[in-house]
Amino acid sequence: MGQSLHRQFSRRRRSTPESGSVSSRKRDAPERSSLCTRERRRRLKVVDRLTAARRSENMRKIRSRNTSPELTVRRFLHRSGFRYRLHSKSLPGKPDVVLPALRACVLIHGCFWHGCTKCVDGTRRVKSHSEYWTAKIRGNQDRDVKHADALRSLGWKVYVLWECRLRRPSVLRTLARSLQKRRERLKGMAGVGDAPRALAM
Predict the structure, then answer these.
(1) Comparing C-alpha atoms, which of 106, 101, 84, 83 is closest to residue 184?
(2) What's the half-sphere exposure (Cβ side, CA atoms, 13 Å) at 38?
(3) Do β-strands 157-162 and 85-86 pair in parallel, antiparallel, or remain unpaired?
(4) What are the structural domain ranges in the chain?
(5) Which fold has domain 57-198?
């Protein structure tokens, strides 16, 4: 008799509104956790441990050539059977990769330095000396447009690849297909593919 009363009392406790409040607290736990996380992030102050001289030295070490995105593109093109030249001084802007036989060039843009509008690296604004960096990146963008227009006016096909887009393997495959179609078209028109030296640099 005592055991049956204990079971009935336990069932009633489980069905009371107080037990429901426990489940509601469980449902609200993720929301409270996210609020606490946002509050901690808001209160967290990032300490800059680099001096101005050290940061300037680090920025000077950033290479303008043979960067990781450039090496990725060059290795892919070589594996795909395309031969190229690098930074031809005879062309406007000294393109990163030049394919003379196809009269095509590839411009490989770092997202921060060239102001990519589609990723966080390009849209991020530097807080220190913001006016200097904004003017510098805008100047890079103006030169990119000017050089690309000059190359097209000379009859060159211009491909622009962004650092963030290179994380997708499909981007390089699309580039290879486009270059292959251009090779076949030029070969049919004037035999350019058979005589890569016909186009002087």
Answers:
(1) 101
(2) 6
(3) unpaired
(4) 2-43, 57-198
(5) Endonuclease; Chain A (3.40.960)
The full 3-state SS of the chain, as one line of letters, equals: CHHHHHHHHHHHHHHCHHHHHHHHHHHHHHHHHHHHHHHHHHHCCCCCCCCHHHHHHHHHCCCCCCCHHHHHHHHHHHHCCCCCEECCCCCCCCCCEEEHHHCEEEEEECHHHHCCCCCHHHHCCCCCCHHHHHHHHHHHHHHHHHHHHHHHHCCCEEEEEECCHHHCHHHHHHHHHHHHHHHHHHHHHHCCCCCHHHCCC
How far is residue 102 CA from its own chain's centroid?
Answer: 27
Decide: 176 and 77 in contact? Cβ < 8 Å: yes
| pLDDT > 80? residue 174 | yes
pTM of the model: 0.64
Residue pLDDT, tens place only, 121-138: 888 888 888 899 999 999
Q: In terms of residues, how long is the chain?
A: 201
Tokens of residue 181, six digits: 């179609």
Distance (Å, whole) CA 97 – CA 94: 9
Q: 89 φ, ψ to 5°? A: -75, -15
